[in-house]
Amino acid sequence: MIQRFVSLSIIVLLLGGMLVAQSTSSKPGVQEQPFGTQDGRPVHLYTLTNSHGVEIKAMNYGGIIVSIKVPDRKGQLADIVLGHDKLEGYIPNPPYFGAIVGRYANRIANGEFTLDGKTYHLPKNDGPNTLHGGTDKTFNKVVWDAEPLKSKTGVAFSYLSHDGDDGFPGNLHMKVTYTLTDTNELVIDYEATTDKATPINVSQHSYFNLKGQGDGDILDHEIMINADRFTPVDKNLIPTGELRPVKGTPFDFTKSTRIGSRIDDNNEQLVLGHGYDHNFVINRKGSGLVLAARVYEPTTGRVLEVSTTQPGVQFYTGNFLDGTITGKDDKVYKRRYGLCLETQHFPDSPNHPSFPNTILKPGEKFHQTTVFKFSTK
Ligand code: GLA
Q: What is the pLDDT of residues 106-127, one digit of tens each?
């Protein structure tokens, strides 16, 4: 009897010790740890933890968000973004898991644009197009300077993109700040200045799966997209220029709808995109933060809300994932195992004068904000 009591007490003590160890490792604030080297420069991993135990890890290589741990409706934490356990997994990173994309997120047709009478040529890395800024020193694969924030739970990444890098004009000073609030929001601020006029479009390329990363596809997630129109594309996924009403089409997500319910419909746009891979025109009045999308996963109750100051959001359903990448915890990422909500300006805007302006001029300040809010229902 006494023996049993003693061994039970030991188990209780051990468990208690583990709990204490766990709670100290996830104390609120920012922690920095080495995460390898790239291009001869140290890479660090920054862990942001809030008072509810929500934890976000991001590194200064590519500004990549490596993990986001949030509770389900029972309080169970899971990592809800696709990615890799180690830096090496991200080199290369063809799906752009978790990365900051730019100088020009999304596509530029034929890898060229004309600005102030001069035509600029960019590397083509997506058939005839330039995708996510090109091939060389794109934001997703350079080492950024990093500084943890002093007064908030956050980290600021800065990068100087030089005049001529990947064919773009001007020295562009770029800063991206990730802040985690106690209301379970990840606030992303993008700021930039330039010394020559240049197109700029920056976004965050995290792949979400609210069931938990690697745990099946996202077809049963429900999504609301606050957009009455989208930008249809041609066979190269370049916008035709039209702003097409979503009403009566599989692109109508103005009411929350299961993602898989129409994704394989015989619809010209869905066939071209191999599913959803389209920019939606966010309904907005004025230029402030508005809700762009809300995603709900019924089995776990997790909810993701995306708000932004940007005019568009690319809804991409991971159509190009094909089971050839093994990610965190040895999970195999198959087709449609993650969804991206890339808040952005419209694709190929430099070649579409009717689209909202993407040209940043010397003396101007670029500032966009996107908020990912995590909750349960
Ligand atoms: C973006 C594009 C997609 C695809 C992914 C990366 O979301 O719109 O077509 O290229 O990036 O795989």
A: 999 999 999 999 999 999 999 9
Contact assessment for residue 281 and residue 227, using Cβ atoms and an 8 Å cutoff: yes
CA dihedral for 166, 231, 250, 291, sign (positive or negative): positive
Other C-beta atoms closer than 10 Å to the C-beta of 3 total 7
Question: Above pLDDT 70, what percent of the chain?
Answer: 93
Please tell me whether the peptide bond between 294 and the residue prior to it is cis, using omega within 30 degrees of 0.
Answer: no
Among 277, 315, 325, 341, which is best to mutate for testing ligand 1, by the most ligand atoms less than 8 A from CB? 277
Burial of 101: CB neighbours in 10 Å, binned 0-12, 13-18, 19+ = buried
Mean pLDDT value of segment 227-242: 98
Nearest to 202 by CA among 119, 144, 273: 144
Active-site residues, by number, are: 205, 342
CB of 277 closer than 6 A to ligand 1?
yes
Q: How confident is the model at residue 24 (pLDDT cuts 50, 70, 90)?
A: very low
Q: Decide: 131 in ligand 1 pocket, CB within 6 A.
A: yes
Q: Which amino acid is at 60?
A: N
In contact, 244 and 357? CB cutoff 8 Å: no
| Residues forming beta bridges with residue 360, ordered by sequence position | 198
Tell me the chain's radius of gyration from C-alpha atoms: 21
Report the distance separating Cα 162 and Cα 207, nearest Å. Answer: 29
Residue minimizing CA distance to atom 1 of ligand 1: 106
Length of the chain (residues): 377
Cβ–Cβ < 8 Å for 288, 242: no
